[in-house]
Amino acid sequence: MKPITLKSVAEQAKVSIATVSKVVNGINKGISAETVARVQRIIRELNYRPNRSGRQLRTQRNYIVGMAIVDNSPTFLTDPYTTHLVAGLSNFLGNHNYGLLLHGIEPASFEKSFLLKESVVDAIC
């Protein structure tokens, strides 16, 4: 199956790729309400999802926040406080189109963590 792109949405909606891009990004200035509604309908019908990799290249962001749990216990997620904190942070980030990367780490190994050494996350908490 061929991936759904801005171009395929534009062809179905009979508008330019730029118009679809603006609607996807919530920049509707200068676009009629009828056109916005038509593009949004086609997006839903085709189940269009923006290309995350393309967005990452364009913005130089990963849209991922890393959470380092400094605890050497393999059962750190069984703690109700930790579970509640992780769930709350994940929900908050999800509402802002960010993901959460959870990383359990031993206290002595924090400086060696891939979260710090590699650019896989935009922020660490």
From TrEMBL:
Pfam families: LacI. InterPro entries: HTH_LacI, Lambda_DNA-bd_dom_sf. Keywords: DNA-binding, Transcription, Transcription regulation. The keyword rRNA processing does not apply. The keyword Transcription regulation applies. Signal peptide: none annotated. Residues 4-59 form the HTH lacI-type domain. It comes from the Bacteria. GO terms for molecular function: DNA-binding transcription factor activity; transcription cis-regulatory region binding. This is LacI family transcriptional regulator.
